[in-house]
Specification:
alpha+beta, TENP protein, BPI_fold-BPI/LBP, Bactericidal permeability-increasing protein, domain 2, about 450 residues, lipid binding
Length: about 450
C-alpha cells in the first residue's frame, strides 16, 4: 500500500545544479586598461563616493570650543583592489592619499588605508548579496610642510575625516555591485513564449581556483514554470586548469541542454510545416492509390510534431541533438488532408559558440535519419520508398527550421554591464566548458 501511495503523491522538485561558473583570481582582479577605470568590485562611482564623503565637511561637534581648522582639499584613490581569500571570501583593499590643510602655510599629506573582508550571502528573496564581515581603516602621516604636534594634529584629522564613518561608506560601495548581482537571476527570453532563468542554489564556495557558484536552470513557457526531466546524475563544476589565464569558466551539463530542448518542445518550437517539392500527381506515379484520393494535382506538405522529448548527448568533441518527430503527409487545398504519416528520427550535430553573453546553438549537417511508416490511407509504403520521396527534403528543412528557432541564441548567466570575450567552447563527455574573459561595458554620464 505504501508503494502505491508513493506513486500517487507528486514527487518534490529536486534542487540540483545543472550549470555553474568559477570566477578565477584573474577575473576577480580584472580591470580595464585605463587606470581610472572601474574594477570588478566597484566602479568609478565607488571612488566618487569615497571622495565626496571624505571631502564633505563634518557635522559640528558641540563639545569643541572652537571649530577645527583642518580641511581636506585633495583626495586621490591610489589602490582599489579585490583579492580572493580561499575558504573565507574576499578582501577589499583601498589606499587613499589625502591632502589636508590645517593653516594657510601648513599642508599635511596622509594616507588612509582600508581593509574590508567581504563574502556573499543569500538574502530571503533568493538573490546573492555581497556583505562586509570586517572593516579596518588606518591613517598615517606621509609628510608635512612644517613640524606639528603629531598627537594633537592626528586627533584633529581623525575628527575631520570621521574614520568611523568610513566603514559605513564601504558598505555603501556594495550597493552598486549588489544591484548587478540581482541581474544574475533575471529571466532571459529564448523565443517569444519561452524564457530561461538561472537560480543560485547556495552561497558561493571559495577555493584556490576561484569563487564557485552552482546554478539550477528553470524554464518558463507562456509565463508558467515547466517541470523538467530529472537529471540522471548529479552535476558538479569541473575544476579549471591551474594554468588557465581566463577570468571565468562556465560549465553546462548534458542535462542543461536536454532541458533546454525539452522546454522548446513544450513551447511548440519544433512543430513545423515543410513544403515538399512533390505534388499528388508525382506521388501517384510511385503510390498508385493516390490517384483515387485526389482528382486534381495539389501540393504536398509535411506537418511535423515531436512524438517524444528531444535529447542532447555530449561526447568528447561533439554535441548531438536527437529529435523524434511524427510527420503527417498530406495535400493542401482548402484544408489539409493527410493520407499517410511516418516517424522521423533525426540525429544532428550541434555547433556551439558564444557572442557577447549569448550561447549560439545551430544544427549542422544531419548525421543520421530514420524513416518508418506510422499509418497510411494509401496502402503499404516501403521504408526505401519513403526515403526516396521525402529524405532529401527532411535532410534540408529540419535543420533549417531548428536554426530559425535557435537563431536568437540562449543567454548565459551573466551580470549586467559585463560581456564575455576570448571565448573558447569545448565539448566534453557529459558537459560543455566555456572559459572566457570579462569585459566591462563603458558607462556614459
Amino acid at each position: 500500500l505504501s508503494i502505491l501511495l508513493s506513486l500517487l503523491v507528486p514527487a518534490h522538485t529536486i534542487r540540483s545544479p545543472d550549470c555553474g561558473g568559477i570566477l578565477t583570481p584573474s577575473g576577480l582582479k580584472y580591470r580595464k586598461s585605463r587606470p581610472t577605470s572601474p574594477t570588478l568590485a566597484a566602479g568609478r562611482g565607488g571612488k566618487s563616493v569615497l571622495r565626496q564623503d571624505l571631502m564633505a565637511p563634518p557635522a559640528p561637534d558641540p563639545s569643541l570650543t572652537s571649530p577645527s581648522r583642518n580641511q581636506i582639499n585633495s583626495v586621490k584613490v591610489d589602490e582599489f583592489s579585490l583579492t580572493l581569500v580561499p575558504d573565507t571570501g574576499m578582501r577589499l583593499s583601498i589606499d587613499v592619499d589625502l591632502g589636508i590643510t590645517s593653516a594657510p602655510s601648513t599642508t599635511k599629506e596622509m594616507q588612509l588605508s582600508i581593509l574590508a573582508d567581504l563574502h556573499v550571502e543569500m538574502n530571503p528573496e533568493g538573490n546573492l548579496e555581497l556583505v562586509t564581515s570586517a572593516c579596518k581603516p588606518t591613517l598615517e602621516e606621509l609628510q608635512s610642510t612644517e613640524e606639528m604636534d603629531s598627537a594633537s594634529s592626528g586627533s584633529d584629522v581623525d575628527k575631520q575625516i570621521n574614520v568611523e564613518k568610513i566603514c559605513l561608506e564601504v558598505s555603501k560601495l556594495l550597493l552598486f555591485p549588489n544591484e548587478r548581482l540581482m541581474s544574475l537571476a533575471a529571466p532571459f527570453p529564448i523565443t517569444p513564449t519561452c524564457q530561461v532563468q538561472y537560480v543560485p542554489l547556495a552561497v558561493p564556495m571559495y577555493s584556490e581556483q576561484g569563487i564557485v557558484i552552482s546554478l539550477q536552470t528553470t524554464f518558463q513557457v507562456s509565463g508558467t514554470v515547466i517541470p523538467l526531466p530529472v537529471s540522471p546524475v548529479p552535476f558538479s563544476m569541473p575544476e579549471p586548469a591551474r594554468s588557465s589565464p581566463s577570468h571565468l569558466s562556465l560549465a553546462f551539463s548534458e542535462h542543461f541542454y536536454t532541458s533546454l530542448f525539452f522546454a522548446l518542445e513544450m513551447a511548440g518550437a519544433f512543430n513545423m510545416t515543410i513544403l515538399s517539392p512533390l505534388t499528388t500527381a508525382t506521388l501517384a506515379e510511385k503510390i498508385t492509390q493516390m490517384g483515387s484520393l485526389f482528382q486534381e494535382d495539389l501540393p504536398v506538405v509535411l506537418q511535423a510534431a515531436t512524438r517524444s522529448s528531444p535529447r542532447v548527448v555530449l561526447e568528447e568533441g561533439r554535441a548531438i541533438l536527437r529529435l523524434f518527430l511524427t510527420a503527417q503527409i498530406g495535400a493542401v487545398s482548402s484544408v489539409f488532408q493527410s493520407f499517410l504519416s511516418m516517424d522521423v528520427d533525426v540525429s544532428a550535430r550541434l555547433h556551439l559558440s558564444v557572442t557577447d553573453t549569448r550561447m549560439i546553438i545551430s544544427a549542422e549537417a544531419i548525421e543520421d535519419i530514420k524513416l518508418s511508416l506510422a499509418a497510411s490511407d494509401v496502402g503499404p509504403v516501403l521504408a526505401a520508398l519513403l526515403e526516396e520521396l521525402f529524405l532529401p527534403t527532411i535532410r534540408e528543412e529540419v535543420p533549417a527550421q531548428i536554426n530559425v528557432v535557435l537563431r536568437g541564441g540562449v543567454f548565459l548567466p551573466h551580470i549586467a554591464s559585463f560581456t564575455y570575450t576570448d571565448v573558447n567552447v569545448t565539448v566534453h563527455k557529459d558537459y560543455v566548458l566555456i572559459p572566457c574573459n570579462l569585459q566591462l561595458e563603458a558607462r556614459t554620464g
